[in-house]
Amino acid sequence: MLERFVSIKEGKIVIIGGGVIGLAIARAIAKRKICRVVLIERGRLCNEASFAAAGMLTPNVECEEYDDFYLACRESNRMFPSLAAELLNETGMDIELRRDGAIAVAKSAQEAEQASEKIARQIRLGIPVEIISAEQAAKLEPAISPTIAGAAFYPEDGQVDNRKLSKALALSARLHGVEVIENTQVTGLLENGGRVTGIRAGEMLIEADRVVVAAGAWTDYLLTTLNLPLLGIKPIRGQIMAYFKTALQPKRIVINSRFYAVPRNDGRLIIGATSEDVGFCKQVLPDSIEILRRSALEIFPWLNKLTVGEAVAGLRPFCSDSRPLIGEIPSAPGLLVATGHYRNGILLSPWTAEIVANEIFNDSHQTIANPFRPKAITSASAK
Ligand SMILES: Cc1cc2nc3c(=O)[nH]c(=O)nc-3n(C[C@H](O)[C@H](O)[C@H](O)COP(=O)(O)OP(=O)(O)OC[C@H]3O[C@@H](n4cnc5c(N)ncnc54)[C@H](O)[C@@H]3O)c2cc1C
């Protein structure tokens, strides 16, 4: 069999996976100008979960505990203004970062009662959130039905256009010298003395000082083919839809227990999303989209006149405790993972990129907290 070696003239890092996580890491490493970076993507860049996502940056709405995970989400949220400015400067692309907050609305008194416990807890934890009346919500957000029972406002949350973010990261990474190889699936690892020293992709072999797996929901599938212990990552399907060019639009993210709505600058209104444990199936089901549509109609009755413009599905990389896994795999020196970002991969992309780059270059400025470090589990328990 013919094998093509890509020669190494200097240190090299290989990233597997061209979603938002792989691209953000590739760019962060290349920016340091210490080594060459090669990113390998099985299909086209950002065509999986990172494409399907809604782009919400909502660490506060989602906060359950004031823990390492919340702090990482908050830190990453705070990194977006400078990331957006850098990407605009480097690529001319506007990722449409909006910092106009998010409103959580309760349709009924019962929903309001259920939400009040979570919000009271968030207030005790010091999370930036204000309880507002239905009248205040209607003033803030005239697109919402006046019949809601209550609301809470999260002023520090926001959103980004994830598709534009991905494109800008890809262009910026290339401008910083990242070599991007698309339509090429990584199928094996090179090893020397128990250390991972590169990857195999069909007939192509690429040697590397470190390999970073950013393969999203496919991480365990890849680890199985590499004969490595699994990490317990599985796909969770999210179906999501969008209306195009709505005349009326909420000004900011509106969240309810059954759906969320994310307005885009181009007039799209994104309505999401399902959460389903159905394996690697990306099928969009008309019934699921109809359920989302009906939930949205309860808060935005005027959507009734509009037809759905787009419906897609993506596979969120889920790890058992809904936390990302970042760092070197204990049994495979030289091999790092950055995966399991589940519902927050867009939000966590700048933070993940920085801590992975710090780990690789032994920069102690911002390190990976222990709860995020991968602990391999056996293939039996992963099932
Ligand atoms: C409906 C939906 C809504 C969401 N909304 C939000 C949101 O509002 N905010 C938020 O922060 N997050 C959101 N998320 C979550 C977010 O999209 C994910 O956490 C994030 O995109 C994960 O990025 P990733 O790069 O790890 O994975 P992906 O984007 O899936 O990329 C992984 C890549 O690895 C490639 N790959 C896999 N195996 C190989 C191989 N062997 N060789 C080469 N390449 C390989 C794949 O082809 C893929 O391109 C949402 C997700 C969904 C599905």
Task: Provide a descriptive summary of the structure in words.
- The protein has 383 residues and is of the alpha/beta class.
- Among the domains are: 4-55 and 163-231 and 322-382, FAD/NAD(P)-binding domain, CATH 3.50.50; 102-155, no CATH class.
- The chain contains 10 helices and 20 strands.
- The strands form 4 sheets. The protein has an 8-stranded mixed beta sheet with strand order 6-7-5-15-16-17-14-18.
- β10 (188-192) and β11 form a beta hairpin.
- The longest helix is centred in the N-terminal third of the chain and has 24 residues, at 68-91.
- It is elongated.
- Residues 1-9 and 378-383 have low confidence and may be disordered.
- Bound molecules: flavin-adenine dinucleotide (FAD).
- Flavin-adenine dinucleotide binds next to α1, α2, β14, β18 and α9.
Give the tags.
binds flavin-adenine dinucleotide, FAD/NAD(P)-binding domain, elongated, eight-stranded mixed beta sheet, disordered C terminus, disordered N terminus, six-stranded mixed beta sheet, 10 helices, 383 residues, alpha/beta
Residue windows where pLDDT falls under 50 for at least 5 positions: 1-9, 378-383
Number of strands: 20
The best one-word shape is elongated
Helix coverage percent of residues? 25-40%
User: How far is it from the N-terminal to the C-terminal residue, by CA?
Assistant: 35 Å
CATH H level, superfamily name of the domain at 4-55 and 163-231 and 322-382: FAD/NAD(P)-binding domain
Regarding quaternary structure, how should these chains be classified? single chain
Radius of gyration: 21 Å
Tell me the strand order in the biggest sheet: 6-7-5-15-16-17-14-18
Look at the structure and give the mean pLDDT: 92
Estimated share of beta-strand residues: 15-25%
Could you say what the CATH topology of the domain at 4-55 and 163-231 and 322-382 is called? FAD/NAD(P)-binding domain
Largest sheet: 8 strands, mixed
The molecules bound to the chains, other than polymers, are: flavin-adenine dinucleotide
The first-level CATH class of the domain at 4-55 and 163-231 and 322-382 is given as Alpha Beta
Judged by helices, strands and strand pairing, the structural class is alpha/beta
Helix and strand string, N-terminal first? EEHEHEHEHEHEEHEEEEEHEEEEHEEEHH
Give me the CATH architecture of the domain at 4-55 and 163-231 and 322-382, please: 3-Layer(bba) Sandwich
Number of helices: 10
